[in-house]
Every structure is written in C-alpha cells, then in structure tokens.
Write a structure and sequence with these properties.
This protein is of the alpha+beta class. The chain has one domain: Ribonuclease Z/Hydroxyacylglutathione hydrolase-like (Metallo-beta-lactamase, Chain A), CATH 3.60.15. The chain is built from 7 helices and 18 strands. Helix 5 packs antiparallel against helix 6. It is globular. The two termini are 33 Å apart.
C-alpha cells in the first residue's frame, strides 16, 4: 500500500463519507481492518471523526470533500490508530479525560518491533496538533441542518465517546465493532457492560437503527450492541480458556458463540 492509494474513500450518502485505511499495514498483529474514519457534511460545517494512523496525507482528501465548509475534527479516543494524523490539523477535540495524551508527542518506541518499519522515518515520535479542545457528555456541534451530540462511553478507554446525530445515526468509535475487542482489566469489565447497556437504551429511545463503528464492517445494525453485550457478559464463564497475548500484555479469549468477537483483556 503506497501513500498515493493508502486510503479508500466511500460515499455512504450525500452527507456522509467513510475514509478507510488498513492498520495491518503497520503490522499484521493488528487484525481489525479496515479502520473507518467518517466525514459528516452539514450546510455550513463538516465533522471528521478520527485522523487515523498518520502514515499518509489525510487533510487533502478531507478538504476535497468539505470544500468551503468549516471543519471540526474529533478524536473518538486517544489510541494511536485514531489520533496520529492529528498533526495535519490545526485544532482537534477530544474528551477531557484523554486531552493530556493527545496534547503531547506520541511515542511509539515502546513497541519498536511493531512500529519501527512504518514509522521509523518519524523517529517513532509523532507530534500533536497545535490546539486541543476538550469535549464532555452532552456537548452538541451544529453543522447546519444537523446536530451531533457527544455521548461519553467509557470502557474501551476512559475518554471514549460515541457521536449521535439528529438524524439518529450513532458513530460508536471503538466502543462497539465486530472484531478483536480491546478491553480494560477484568475488574473494569462492569464499566464496559454499563456503557453498552446505556447505548442500547439510547438507541431504543432515539429510534437508532444504524451504527457506524470505527473498525471492520460498516454500517451495522443494533444487533452489534446486543451481541457484544451478551459476549462481554459471558467473559467470566470463559475465563478458564484465556491465554496470554504477550505483545498486547493481555489475556485473550475466543468466543465460541459469537465468533466475530475475540476479547483481549488488559493485564496492565
């Protein structure tokens, strides 16, 4: 995959684009291809959800789509594959719990064996954008003709957010998707379940039927949340099957019922 065709751009509707890249390009240990970055268009403003791996220019693609509209950039959370393109943009929003992470250079040297091949020319230290602004649960962005509400959804990370549009579309970030699930330590699994339960209730209340995850298949239906809730709820019963995943400092558990999920539970 060369820089010239690093991204694949798809038009999901007249007002919604998905920009995809394969994180397995960084290292085959990452299996949740593709990574989905979303671009929402309103009458006067546009919203970019996440900036990707930072390995190829993203901003020219975004500018070619948004044209004269103002651009708002939001990180769904502060994991590397969602923020390393931040340096291309002047200003980025992120939940207040993770603002410090993206305000500083991001050092990939802790896993030189994984990141060294693709990021070596950047010395494994990726600079941040110039300005970080914080968001919190309930904040609303007016794009013109549509609003986008911030839903704090901790579990995958302390500052994970989902984004709900006034058109009843829910962008779930890494909170819910089909694929490898990166979860916190076992004692914090109840927080994940609480978030998933809250999202299921939110979707029922707002008649949300379409979900846009940050990895793999998109869009998805409500079954994604229901299946993930059921699967994570069953981790205790599967705990005896866990194996050590040394690269991710995690326990790994396969789900024999929901085969589209695999759980990596942090040991840190």
């Amino acid at each position: 995959m060369e820089d010239s065709n690093h991204f694949t751009v798809g038009k999901l509707s007249d007002e919604l684009y998905v920009i995809q890249e394969n994180i397995s390009y960084v290292h085959p240990i990452y299996t949740n291809d593709p990574l989905n970055l979303y671009l929402l268009l309103g009458e006067h403003s546009s919203l970019l959800i996440d900036t990707g791996c930072g390995l190829a220019p993203l901003k020219p693609i975004v500018e070619g789509i948004v044209k004269e509209r103002d651009l708002i950039v939001i990180n769904s959370h502060a994991h590397w594959d969602h923020i390393l393109g931040n340096e291309e943009f002047e200003e980025v929003y992120i939940h207040e719990n993770e603002a410090e992470i993206v305000s500083n250079p991001y050092n990939l040297a802790y896993h030189r064996d994984i990141f060294g091949k693709r990021y070596g020319n950047k010395n494994l230290v990726i600079p941040p954008c110039n300005t970080i602004k914080t968001i919190k649960d309930g904040d609303i962005f007016d794009l013109g003709g549509k609003d986008v509400e911030v839903i704090h959804a901790p579990g995958h990370s302390p500052g994970s957010v989902c984004l709900l549009t006034s058109e009843n579309k829910l962008f779930t970030g890494d909170v819910a998707y089909y694929g490898d699930q990166f979860l916190p330590r076992k004692e914090f699994i109840p927080r994940v379940l609480e978030t998933l339960s809250n999202l299921i209730s939110l979707c029922k209340k707002n008649n949300v039927n379409t979900l846009y995850p940050s990895h793999q298949k998109t869009p998805c239906g409500m079954n994604l949340l229901k299946e993930l809730y059921e699967g994570v709820s069953n981790i205790d019963q599967l705990w005896h099957t866990r194996k050590l995943h040394s690269h991710f400092y995690s326990w790994i558990i396969n789900d024999p019922k929901h085969k589209r999920f695999r759980y990596l539970i942090s040991r840190l």
